[in-house]
């Protein structure tokens, strides 16, 4: 993630929701996926409440309204796609469900 990317607290939480949803795409959050999500959360300097929310999303997938692609600002779509792609590659395996979910998000954001 670029240092030049400036995200509001809501933007950060939205991005983390998408990352967590991709971690859940194959119905299992693996250790490397969890580690990736937590590293991004650290880099984004989330506050305590945001960190708690991310931890919850790693236990239970985010609700659909949290990961509504229509809520992603145009200026952040590439960032969300790039981070989603990195998320699905984090464990070294790309499951079919992850590919399908990414393709759907990419199509919705096009």
Overall shape: globular
Could you tell me how far the N terminus lies from the C terminus, measured between alpha carbons in angstroms? 21 Å
What's the rounded overall pLDDT mean?
A: 92
Second CATH tier, the architecture? Orthogonal Bundle
Which sequence of SSEs, written as H and E, runs from N to C? HHHHH
CATH topology: TerB-like
As a percent range, the share of strand residues is: under 5%
Structural class designation: mainly alpha
CATH class: Mainly Alpha
- Estimated radius of gyration: 13 Å
Which oligomerization state do the chains in this entry correspond to? Answer: single chain
Main sheet characteristics: none
Your description of this structure?
With 110 residues, this protein is mostly helical. 61% of the residues lie in helices and 0% in strands. The chain has helices at 9-23, 31-43, 48-59, 77-89, 96-109. The chain is globular and about 35 Å long. The chain starts with 8 loop residues before the first helix and ends with a helix.
């Amino acid at each position: 993630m670029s240092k030049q990317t400036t995200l509001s607290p809501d933007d950060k939480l939205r991005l983390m929701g998408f990352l967590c949803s991709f971690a859940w795409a194959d119905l299992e959050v693996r250790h490397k996926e969890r580690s990736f999500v937590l590293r991004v959360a650290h880099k984004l300097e989330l506050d305590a409440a945001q960190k708690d929310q991310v931890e919850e999303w790693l236990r239970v997938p985010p609700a659909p309204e949290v990961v509504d692609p229509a809520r992603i600002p145009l200026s952040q779509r590439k960032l969300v796609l790039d981070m989603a792609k990195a998320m699905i590659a984090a464990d070294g395996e790309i499951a079919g469900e992850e590919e399908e979910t990414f393709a759907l998000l990419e199509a919705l954001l096009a």
